[in-house]
């Protein structure tokens, strides 16, 4: 089983990485989106923070990545382009390039930032769909099934933090 998970991890290692240094948005290679300082992207807005009491970082990241890869065509085909800049975050760039979602996984929890100074209305609606789905998945991980807390991928500092996060979503 461990060998299989290692292979799955290798599959996602280069997710969305493109060795072409072009900054041409039309070619799908937007290059460096923003500068990161102390774990926060300059010009981004923090929209969700889900604080973790305990987290199995690798498992939660893999589970979330699988969900997000499946959601790239939500609400329509080609809506989102996913990329992974390192092992702690996933970036989803919207097709009209008006905004991006940056999801970071740390030992302290999961954070979601919006990058884009003037996201389009279509972006905000699509972002709401993606983030509500992600929060549904996190909720299932935290509360569903007969799994002991010490075996869960995520346990929360505050039991209502996922619902509080929903309140921060534009069209939640």
Structure description:
This protein has 172 residues and is of the alpha+beta class. The protein has four helices and eight strands. The protein has a six-stranded antiparallel β-sheet with strand order 4-5-6-7-3-8. The longest helix is centred in the C-terminal third of the chain and has 23 residues, at 121-143. It is globular. It starts with a helix and ends in a 5-residue tail after the last helix.
Outline of this structure?
The protein is an alpha+beta fold and about 170 residues long.
Class per helix and strand makeup:
alpha+beta
| Regions with little confidence, pLDDT below 50 for 5+ residues | 16-33
Q: Report the β-strand fraction as a percent range.
A: 25-35%
Shape: globular
Mean pLDDT, to the nearest integer, reads 82
Sheet of most strands:
6 strands, antiparallel
User: Order of strands across the biggest sheet?
Assistant: 4-5-6-7-3-8
Q: Number of helical segments? A: 4
Give the helices and strands as they follow along the chain: HEEEHEEEEHEH
Helix proportion of residues, in percent?
Answer: 25-40%
Total strands: the figure is 8
Q: Gap between N and C termini, in Å?
A: 38 Å
- Mind telling me the C-alpha Rg? 16 Å
């Amino acid at each position: 089983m461990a060998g299989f998970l290692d292979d799955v991890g290798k599959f996602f290692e280069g997710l969305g990485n493109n060795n072409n240094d072009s900054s041409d948005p039309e070619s799908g290679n937007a290059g460096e989106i923003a500068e990161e300082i102390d774990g926060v992207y300059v010009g981004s807005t923090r929209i969700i923070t889900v604080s973790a009491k305990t987290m199995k970082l690798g498992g939660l990241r893999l589970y979330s990545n699988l969900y997000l890869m499946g959601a790239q065509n939500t609400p329509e085909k080609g809506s989102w382009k996913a990329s992974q800049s390192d092992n702690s975050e996933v970036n989803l760039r919207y097709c009209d390039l008006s905004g991006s979602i940056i999801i970071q996984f740390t030992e302290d929890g999961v954070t979601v930032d919006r990058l884009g100074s003037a996201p389009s209305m279509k972006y905000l609606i699509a972002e709401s769909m993606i983030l509500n789905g992600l929060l549904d998945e996190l909720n299932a991980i935290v509360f569903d099934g007969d799994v002991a807390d010490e075996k869960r991928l995520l346990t929360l500092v505050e039991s209502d933090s996922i619902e509080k996060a929903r309140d921060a979503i534009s069209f939640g």
